[in-house]
Design goal:
Rossmann fold; 14 strands; about 425 residues; 2 domains; 12 helices; about 35% helix; disordered N terminus; binds nicotinamide-adenine-dinucleotide; Dihydrodipicolinate Reductase, domain 2; 8-stranded mixed sheet; globular; nucleotide binding
Amino acid sequence: MASLPASTPGSRSSSRRPSIDPSRLVPMDRTSHIGGSDDFNVVFVGAGNIMFGSPEGPWNHSFRLEHKLGPRLKVVALIDPAIERAAAVLQKKCDSFVVSAYQDTRIFKSFEDFMQQMSEKDRPRAVIVGSPPMFRGATTPGRDIEMQIMKHLPGVAMFIEKPIATGPEHEIPEGFKIGKMISEAKTICSVGYMLRYLKAVQMMKQVIDENNLTVMSTIARYACAYESIAKPEWWDKSKSAGPVIEQGTHFCDLSRYFGGEVDISSVQAHSLEWYENAGRLSKMAIDEEKIAPENRIPRVTAATWKYDSGAVGTFTHVVALQGHNYSCEFEVHADGYSLKLVNPYVLPVLYIRKPGDDNETTTRFADDDPFFSEISNFVDLIEDIEEDPESSTILSSYEDAVKTYEFTWAIRRASEKSLEAKAKASKEAADVAKNA
Ligand SMILES: NC(=O)c1ccc[n+]([C@@H]2O[C@H](COP(=O)([O-])OP(=O)(O)OC[C@H]3O[C@@H](n4cnc5c(N)ncnc54)[C@H](O)[C@@H]3O)[C@@H](O)[C@H]2O)c1
């Protein structure tokens, strides 16, 4: 009989990463803004949807920062090469009751321009980076905003949106290099994997911790409503790097949050491509003909992998739903337990089955706001006001987010390899038939 390998050291603890007591995750309308009276200077990089909101979803960092910081918020700079867009969002703010945060905001085309003109009184305490990922996460000029911030504003906290980059696969080591620099400099840095801050997710963590469970399997399914995705770049792999890296990344990240480190060499995947019969879509909001055929995105990507702990993960990303709302589910299985998170974007519901009862308990989280919780934790950490260090925790560090990025690239690459293998086999079969 073959001997069983010893369990991986640390595998039990792999599901016990930093977490927050779910009772501490309070929506905006049930908190008051942070205390103190001094200005809290902030720089925004990017004047787009994530920063100022859009009908596509509930994201809007400026809104959460306004509530968290109250009259202390001073947005000293808004950096965006699209000056007109920046001016338009700024005007809206100045026409509203939050004018005090924006009346002195200056618009800059680039971070370099801001640094050249920054006066000492404008020195920010935090830089919120919501530019497109193709302009960050690398070490080349123009795409190295994180390194520029660390160089010119050492010690200033950074909030960086997900995914950390969408550059070519061979640049992943640059992401790790940036992550190392950030942690060595002890810079406060949070990456926008806000699903980790969902109350339901933290409740799942609590069940795992309290019962000392070892995760056996994670099962993730992410079905987006493609009809409402109107950004041409999203549909273009040369810009977004594809839907797993750009969007499915949230669920790949959650998988890692619960399952621990992924054995990257074990990742296998298949995809349904746009040119296959089953991959035809009838309600796309963009003209796909304008995108080069080799850059068009897959409609379905399905992956499996092993975690270092031995646990097994699966993920399916689907571009098939119409309408507006996404349909996403994430399950974690452990001995005697299943934890199922449904609809995390719209109305999170958590189904828990425990030993001793075949029925699931259902918990609904009607007024949870993970976007506020991630910003709130980030600000608390900068202010260093918490007497209880457990309550302000960054759940997604840059270094960790690079691992999610690497993982999503591995899924994309594995699906492309399967396609290549299939094409090769078909060609060989055709050659055999021809020569028969
Ligand atoms: N966590 C979430 O749920 C969530 C939701 C939406 C977007 N996002 C992420 O936020 C990021 C931005 O997405 P978005 O929807 O706001 O995009 P967007 O296109 O609406 O806005 C991006 C803005 O950045 C500007 N920009 C381009 N290059 C720049 C540069 N070098 N420096 C500064 N600004 C630059 C653009 O002109 C644009 O105004 C993406 O990484 C996206 O994945 C995350």
